[in-house]
Amino acid sequence: MNGPMDSPEEPLRLSVDRDRCAGAGMCALTAPEVFDQDDEEGLVVLRHPAPAPEHRAAARMAVGLCPAGAIALNSPDSTDA
Amino acid sequence: MSYDPTAAGDTTVDEPATLPTDRRTGCPFDPPAELTTLSDKPLRRMRYGDGHMGWLVTGHAAGRAILADPRFSSRYELLHLPEPIAGVSGEMPPAPVGDMLGLDAPEHTRYRRLLTGKFTVRRMRQLTERVAQFTTECLDAMEQAGPTADLVEAFAQPVPALMICELLGVPYADRERFQSDVATLFDQTAGLEAKGAAYTALLQFLGELVLAKRAEPTDDLLSDLTASDLTDEELAGVGGMLLAAGLDTTANMLGLGTFALLSNPGQLAALRADPGLAEQTVEELLRYLSVADPLLRSALEDVEVAGRLIRAGETVTVSVQATNRDPHKFPGPDRLDIHRKATGHLAFGHGAHQCLGQQLARVEMTVAFPALFARFPTLRLAVPPQEVPLRDRSNIYGVISLPVTWDKE
Ligand code: SF4
Description:
heterodimer; A: alpha+beta; two-stranded antiparallel sheet; globular; disordered N terminus; B: alpha+beta; five-stranded mixed beta sheet; three-stranded antiparallel beta sheet; binds iron/sulfur cluster
């Protein structure tokens, strides 16, 4: 299991659920390279499902901060390589 | 309905029996002493104003879990109040039309979706210039009229008030019509009747405004919303909720935050030396002061949290100020430390109801605090700290006034 605070070296894959998103913007604030909000509804937009190493720590933090549990973090499995 | 302890799964009745609210004995920035000594017990039984036996949450992890869990309802009519308010004997009346704070999904979602796009990080950052302008105007006026000023009146109130009024499209000149009504809504000593009258007045004011916007839309949020499927009544309710939320919260953060920084000269000096610390300082002040408190939820079904069984129908009071002082989450929690990463605090709540306007509040504070301290390098309290009057009976904590002075150049 990956916790939000795991090492930034480890690759990660993200997915978002816009139906759950509350539009509070914690993700866009915490990891602007990875997440955005669309202009109409203010809901999360995933810019990079597999963020570059330098953005991974922030992305993991955003997962932990999202108030709505709208961002999922999947450890990359073998089928993913 | 009376509580039968033998019928509940958890019969442990532990202290304290009621919600601790007395801050008077300690530091004005600290939660009531009894609350923070509970950190080893994240969740405990609490007796409510009407005799209901519910829960008090002081642990960060437990509070966060409850606020994020849709099995806990925000519907007012399901909640018991920690302390009785005049005119409410048992449960509360349901949320008035348009007040999404007292609703659950899917009703809550319908309102929230209409608004989230208006409060994105990007949109709020675009308001930085405008906030800076309002701040400068207020500081100019304060400088000319002083020294000595009431910082609340000169600065902490008008900066967020000007901004939320402009954003919503509410004429700032009309503020006498809504400012005291909003204060009454948050006043814990005001009875239900007074609150009802204040709310009716606020709604009437917004109702008139909504009609005006429908007739002649301008470039603001209320006008934009006239294009949605909201009825006039809903629109006035949503507008009232946004106005109330946008006025008092940030104003009290600015007033109490200035007091806290002036009382911690080392921290203030660090911020002055490096304005780049502004964002971090704002986060830490949000954690340390937690002005909007507490948050109430009601269990819709039996839920286990932190090893205790919360039964369907039981009300849970999440003490935000206590969770934000949980030493397991924030080491040395009673220290104001602008170098710490306070991210993850619950000052804006958590879950589906997490504060919609939080990015606006962040922009306002990040601009306003450094501007204030840059303009007045010798800013200090004009009265002994113990004489600063506190809003200790309001749902939004803060200072009633903050007399300050400075040396003229
Ligand atoms: S932090 Fe979560 S709720 Fe907020 S915008 Fe991002 S995905 Fe949506």
